[in-house]
């Protein structure tokens, strides 16, 4: 407060008003595509958080529907209806209908044991969740149930089909532990318009289902014994619309800390980002400690191994990030590395891939311009496979943007915090800056 008071006294009020106006006008003209949409009501974000509504990260239409406050009364009605039903996961949005999964009976905390005391004894894993797939018209009205009685929260809507996992009980013996014991669940599919379900896959682990194009994907863990220890692999499968046999499209070994993004479909190929962490030269030569918790700059932290590293940071790094954008055909063949980003040499990295209106986008993070005062620079880029330079910057995202951007129509939306102060209020409260979250948008090229 004291700093604000001194600053106000030192700056002439008329000059500040004129300078601020010129600054805002020049910024708007210089970034002609950036538009201020509206202030986001605080109750909107807090209401969605309390409702515990899950939205798929790669579904741009669902994210736009839930998180862009347009003031549309029908959208507000649908959001409030879903929020009033408690825990829910949005599944799909079409031209006329929104589908979501409602948890009608959440699982109890803890494990249902066969014995309550004594030495480790076998126990049962019992499916306890009860859920229903619901739908609501985008014109408004009351929601209705598509299918009830699901005993898991894993479901997806894609290509006119409803998919879900039927969870089955199984016994676990702590004395003879086998991490593959839980692969007893089943994948079912039924038409959204009604009809009998069909079992497609048996022997699945409990996992999430993700809509990909007109099909679905899921990832199961599989453990194998190596040198008297279990090594866990993650296997991702894809099932196309109308197909009955899934394809194995990728494998990641968690022993080397691979991380894979969600899959998207683009022009009859599947794309994703592979994040691979590898030992830096400093770590290979045995310089410095194993952890680098004092590193400065845009680093990252691995919670599993307690290792951190940061290109350009002070001190030796242990693990560095190398990313690859990879693609395969829909049947899992024809694997191709479309592009590579080595954070150690270039400082560049990418986020999740999104498909919007027939184009493939990602956000590219680069080192900041010298003297900018920021620790990174983000650009929205279009991925154009097959070209000499397959990643094309569309526009720079303002550095004060917070959170993850959302696509809707011809625009890319993002939020930023604005600070406001009342120069005519010199009370203790008036000297405190008021922070508002504001929605901005940038028009996408035609």
Low-confidence stretches: 2-32, 43-51, 110-118, 281-318
Rg over CA atoms, rounded to whole Å, is: 25 Å
Overall body shape:
globular
Q: How much of the residues is beta strand, in percent?
A: 35-45%
Based on secondary structure, the structural category is: mainly beta
The overall average pLDDT, rounded, is 74
Distance, first to last CA:
47 Å
Helix tally equals 7
How would you write the strand order of the largest sheet?
2-3-4-6-7
Total strands: the figure is 31
Q: Mind describing the biggest β-sheet?
A: 5 strands, mixed
Helix-residue proportion: 10-25%
Protein architecture, described:
The protein is mostly beta strands. It contains seven helices and 31 strands. It is globular.
Can you give me a brief rundown of this structure?
By secondary structure, the chain is mainly beta.
Give a topology summary.
Blueprint: H1 2-10, H2 13-30, E1 34-39, H3 42-51, E2 53-54, H4 60-67, H5 73-84, E3 88-93, E4 97-105, E5 123-125, E6 130-137, E7 144-150, E8 155-158, E9 161-166, E10 170-172, E11 185-191, E12 198-204, E13 210-212, E14 215-226, E15 229-239, E16 247-253, E17 259-260, E18 264-266, E19 269-279, H6 281-284, E20 300-302, E21 307-309, E22 319-329, E23 336-342, H7 343-346, E24 349-350, E25 354-356, E26 359-366, E27 377-383, E28 391-397, E29 401-408, E30 411-420, E31 434-443
Parallel strand pairs: 2-3
Antiparallel strand pairs: 1-31, 3-4, 4-6, 5-10, 6-7, 8-9, 9-11, 11-12, 13-14, 14-15, 15-16, 17-19, 18-19, 19-22, 20-21, 22-23, 24-26, 25-26, 26-27, 27-28, 29-30, 30-31
